[in-house]
Design goal:
Number of domains: 2
CATH topology of the largest domain: Rossmann fold
Largest sheet: 8 strands, mixed
Helix content: 40-55%
Number of helices: 10
Strand content: 15-25%
CATH class of the largest domain: Alpha Beta
Radius of gyration: 18 Å
Bound molecules: NADPH dihydro-nicotinamide-adenine-dinucleotide phosphate, ketopantoate
Structural class: alpha/beta
Strand order of the largest sheet: 5-2-1-6-7-8-11-12
Number of strands: 12
CATH superfamily of the largest domain: NAD(P)-binding Rossmann-like Domain
CATH architecture of the largest domain: 3-Layer(aba) Sandwich
Length: 297
């Protein structure tokens, strides 16, 4: 299937900040959204630059309550992916597409073992989503909502989201695109979570210097992994983060504030592991990793 020209059934596994933001756009466009999760949910609410709107959703409390669907959006934290195995097996029993709306650089490796014949579509999420209550999200938009690969599997997903009013970019060199997104996360997420402050903390000169050191190390690691990054990516990423809408937060800061597990292994932990593998110095990232691990103990 290359285009989506009718109402589709879309299962969303992980109705947190990102899952609710996408579910709201899909529901607004007339698609049938099935919320897959532990907590009953009948309606979701989104607040963005257009105001606050609410949409009804279906709810499945366990995989047996859900049928195979053409599209799944997986929007849990990276570390919760293995726990969604039964959902994914059931939802993809007839194939279809699984859009992995998570951070990190190894979406396919993470999810392909769980989805049989379904096509895995890695998705880089650029909108800034803040959970305000169960089923409610506040979205601050950037210049794009989503970045997908430029391949056949991603085409149907790109169409689904574009026809739902989201801004989608596709990239032939998805590895580089994924590393560019990873750069935003290895700088913003740990520093906001550790300081307890929103992304505006990155405009403080001493904090900006730390972020730049973290970013330069991550650029070197990304290049060793085959991403087409240059030193300018470090300064560009910092400038992009400093220019985010006032009040922008991060997923890791929200987790710290809510007392949830922090998603640092797939971000800063990945930089530390790959840095070791490639013989790149990653001291700044390793220092953040030690602190994240300490506050998680
Ligand atoms: N927030 C943001 O602005 C952005 C986030 N991202 C990335 O998107 C991904 C999702 O982040 P975000 O939306 O912030 O995370 P949230 O923590 O807000 O949402 C994750 C959701 O997954 C649910 N969940 C966890 N385990 C399971 C399970 N086994 N079965 C079903 N549901 C489950 C959680 O349920 P419960 O509520 O019960 O815990 C929660 O509702 C992450 O990889 C993040 O890094 C990327 C860009 C921006
Ligand atoms: C870009 C950023 C830092 C903010 O949306 C993000 O991806 C996250 O919060 O995980």
């Amino acid at each position: 299937m290359d285009t989506v020209d009718s109402a589709e059934t879309v299962a969303v596994v992980g109705l947190g900040a990102v899952g609710t933001a996408f579910a709201a756009s899909l529901a607004e466009a007339g698609h049938e959204v099935v919320a897959c999760g532990r907590r009953p949910l009948e309606r979701i609410e989104i607040t963005d630059e257009r105001g606050t709107r609410a949409y009804p959703v279906g709810w499945a409390g366990s995989p047996e309550d859900a049928g195979p669907v053409p599209f799944v959006v997986l929007a849990t934290k990276i570390h919760d992916t293995p726990a969604t195995a039964e959902w994914l097996a059931r939802l993809t029993a007839d194939g279809g597409h699984v859009v992995v709306a998570q951070n990190g650089v190894d979406h396919r490796e993470r999810v392909e073992p769980l989805v049989g014949a379904a096509a895995v579509v890695p998705a880089l999420v650029y909108l800034n989503a803040e959970r305000t209550a169960p089923g409610s999200v506040r979205v601050r938009r950037t210049e794009r909502d989503l970045v997908l690969p430029d391949d056949a599997a991603a085409k149907a997903a790109a169409n689904l989201f574009e026809t739902s009013g989201l801004t989608v970019e596709t990239h032939a060199d998805f590895r580089t695109a994924a590393w560019r997104k990873m750069l935003t996360n290895v700088a913003a997420n740990p520093i906001t979570a550790l300081t307890g402050r929103r992304v505006e903390v990155l405009t403080e000169p001493a904090v900006a210097d730390l972020a730049l050191a973290v970013l330069r190390e991550a650029v070197a690691v990304g290049r060793a992994e085959g991403a087409q990054l240059t030193d300018a990516d470090a300064t560009r990423t910092l400038a992009w983060l400093q220019g985010l809408a006032p009040g922008s937060t991060t997923s890791m800061l929200q987790d710290r504030e809510a007392g949830r597990r922090l998603e640092y292994d797939g971000l800063t932990g990945t930089i530390a592991r790959l840095g070791d593998r490639h013989g790149e110095a990653v001291e700044a990232n390793r220092a953040l990793l030690a602190l994240l691990s300490a506050i998680s103990a």
